[in-house]
Amino acid sequence: MRTFKQKKIILFTLGIFTPLNFTLLEVNASSFGAEIFCTMRDGGNDHESSWDAAYSYIKKQKGGLFKVAPKNAAAQITETVIREKDKFSYCVEYLEGLHPNRQLIRDIEKEEERKDKEAQEREEKKKRLERELEETNDEINSQINEEFTDETLERYSY
After folding, report:
1. Are 38 and 76 in contact (CB under 8 A)?
2. How far apart are the C-alpha atoms of 18 and 24, rounded to whole Å?
3. How far apart are alpha carbons 22 and 157 in whole angstroms?
4. Is there a contact between 95 and 55 (Cβ–Cβ < 8 Å)?
5. SS3 67
């Protein structure tokens, strides 16, 4: 009976400390990911190579079944740089590349909406013109049928 209680206490203790351990790993991964990103940028590397290195490290350290999304990794790096201003004071200017210009994204979305609307209007115009053409053809056919009777179309009527 006593061994069951001991197992229960051990499992309970593991249940409490395991999530804390994963949280600490994530914080350390984002902190070192920010350090990788900022050091590479400060060393003269471009945004893409610095971002790829930092993101790869954060993904690798996360572990588990699901990987960190790029937006989340960028947010973690930004949070670390902001939280540790003294350590990463030189890196603030590089954060702009992690989060694209939101105005630019809105402009692109508006442009796509405009193109979709124009395509829809063209499609409606095409359907309207097809209907008008069909109506005109029907009118012409009915006029031709009225003009020519069966007698005028018989081959052997002289």
Report:
1. no
2. 10
3. 100
4. no
5. coil
List CB contacts of 36: < 8 A, sequence separation 6 or more.
Answer: 50, 53, 54, 57
Both structure tokens of 21:
């351990």
Q: Quick check: 37 and 50 in contact, CB under 8 A?
A: yes
CB of 62 within 8 A of CB of 68?
A: yes
User: How far apart (Å, rounded) are the C-alpha atoms in residues 96 and 62?
Assistant: 24
Phi-psi category of 157—alpha, beta or left, where left has phi over 0 and alpha has psi -120 to 50? beta
Q: How far apart are the first and last CA of the chain?
A: 120
Angle 81-83-88 (CA atoms, 0-180°, nearest 5)?
35
**Lookup: tokens for 108:** 């692109």
Tokens 């018989």 belong to 154
What is the full per-residue pLDDT of the chain (158 aa) written as tens digits?
A: 567 676 666 666 666 655 544 444 445 666 888 899 888 888 888 888 888 988 889 888 876 677 888 888 888 888 998 888 888 888 888 888 887 666 777 888 899 999 999 999 999 999 999 999 999 988 888 877 776 655 555 666 55
